[in-house]
C-alpha cells in the first residue's frame, strides 16, 4: 500500500508518517510522498514533499492519502486529492464545520474516491500496513473485520479479541462526526465476498442512524457473514453529546429502537465490551451463528 501524507511537514503528521513507514517497512506499506503547499522540493525524513497532490501523483503511484491538514483547510485537501485521482483518502482532521463537510461530500468528482472520515483514526490491516493514527499493539492478523465510530473502542475491542486468540483482517474507524464518507453499509459490503473475513464486528454509538441503516442492509441483502455489534453511550441522557459530535441521543427511546433494529436483522448485540470476544468466538467455531 503506497501512502501519501497531506500536510506532512506538520509536527503531528511527521510523527505519524514515521510510524506508518516503520510499520509498513516490515510488512506491505510504504510512505512514498507528502504534500504541503509552498514546501515543494523539501523532504521529511527522506520522504519527498510536493506543493500539490497533482505534482505528487505525477511522480509517484499512490493508493491512499492521509490528510493531516487543519480543519479550515481539510475540505479543500480532500477535494484536491479526489480531483487529482487519489483512489482512497483518510481524513484524520477533527473539528471540520458540518456545512463544509456536507459541501465536500456533495462536490462533483468526489464519487470515484473512497473517503474515510473525517475525525477518524484511519485503517489498519494487521501484519500489512496502517494509514492513519491507530496504535499497532492491540492488533493481530486474523479473520475479523472491525468497523467503528470510535477510535478508542476500536483499540479496546481489538485488544480483547487478540487476548482471546482472535485476530483481525482489517479495522476501520469511519469517523465520529455527523457527516462522514464511508459508513457501516459501505464497509460491510467491501468485505462481503472477502474469504479472509469470516465475521464482522460493529462498534457504534448513540445518535444518528448508521447502525439502523446497516441493519436494514443486512436484512434486505441477506448479508452472508455473521455480525456482532456493541453500541456505546446508551446510558447518556437525551440531548447530551457523548465524545463525538455525532454521538447525541435524540430521545429516550432512541437506544432501544437502535437495538431492536439490529436484533431484527439477526445481528448479535453485545451489552458489554466483555461480551464481544465470546460472541465473535462463537461465530468462528460455529456455536453462535
TrEMBL record:
The keyword Ligase applies. GO terms for molecular function: nucleotide binding; succinate-CoA ligase (ADP-forming) activity; succinate-CoA ligase (GDP-forming) activity. GO terms for cellular component: succinate-CoA ligase complex (ADP-forming). The keyword Phosphoprotein does not apply. Pfam families: CoA_binding, Ligase_CoA. Keywords: Ligase, Nucleotide-binding, Tricarboxylic acid cycle. Residues 1-96 form the CoA-binding domain. GO terms for biological process: tricarboxylic acid cycle. Its EC number is 6.2.1.5. PROSITE patterns: SUCCINYL_COA_LIG_1, SUCCINYL_COA_LIG_2. It is an enzyme of class 6 (ligase). This is Succinyl-coa ligase alpha chain. It comes from hydrocarbon metagenome. The lineage of its organism: unclassified sequences, metagenomes, ecological metagenomes.
Amino acid at each position: 500500500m503506497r501512502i501519501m501524507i497531506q500536510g506532512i511537514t506538520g509536527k503531528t503528521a511527521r510523527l505519524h508518517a514515521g510510524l506508518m513507514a516503520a510499520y509498513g517497512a516490515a510488512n506491505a506499506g510504504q510512505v512514498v510522498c507528502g504534500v504541503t503547499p509552498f514546501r515543494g522540493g523539501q523532504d521529511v525524513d527522506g520522504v519527498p514533499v510536493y506543493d500539490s497532490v497533482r505534482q505528487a501523483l505525477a511522480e509517484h503511484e499512490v493508493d491512499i492519502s492521509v490528510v493531516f491538514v487543519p480543519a479550515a483547510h481539510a475540505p479543500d485537501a480532500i477535494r484536491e486529492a479526489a480531483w487529482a485521482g487519489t483512489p482512497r483518502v483518510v481524513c484524520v482532521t477533527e473539528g471540520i464545520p458540518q456545512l463544509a463537510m456536507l459541501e465536500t461530500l456533495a462536490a462533483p468528482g468526489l464519487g470515484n474516491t473512497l473517503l474515510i472520515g473525517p475525525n477518524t483514526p484511519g485503517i489498519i490491516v494487521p501484519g500489512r500496513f496502517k494509514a492513519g493514527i491507530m496504535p499497532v499493539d492491540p492488533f493481530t492478523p486474523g479473520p475479523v473485520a472491525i468497523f467503528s465510530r470510535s477510535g478508542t473502542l476500536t483499540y479496546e475491542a481489538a485488544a480483547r479479541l487478540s487476548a482471546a486468540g482472535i485476530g483481525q483482517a482489517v479495522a476501520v474507524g469511519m469517523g465520529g462526526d455527523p457527516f462522514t464518507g464511508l459508513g457501516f453499509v459501505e464497509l460491510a459490503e467491501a468485505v462481503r465476498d472477502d474469504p479472509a473475513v469470516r465475521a464482522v464486528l460493529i462498534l457504534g454509538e448513540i445518535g444518528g442512524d448508521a447502525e439502523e441503516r446497516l441493519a436494514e442492509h443486512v436484512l434486505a441483502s441477506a448479508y452472508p457473514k455473521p455480525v456482532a455489534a456493541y453500541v456505546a453511550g446508551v446510558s447518556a441522557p437525551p440531548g447530551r453529546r457523548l465524545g463525538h459530535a455525532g454521538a447525541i441521543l435524540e430521545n429516550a427511546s432512541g437506544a432501544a429502537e437502535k437495538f431492536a433494529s439490529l436484533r431484527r436483522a439477526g445481528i448479535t448485540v453485545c451489552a458489554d465490551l466483555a461480551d464481544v470476544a465470546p460472541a465473535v468466538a462463537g461465530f468462528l467455531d460455529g456455536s453462535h451463528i
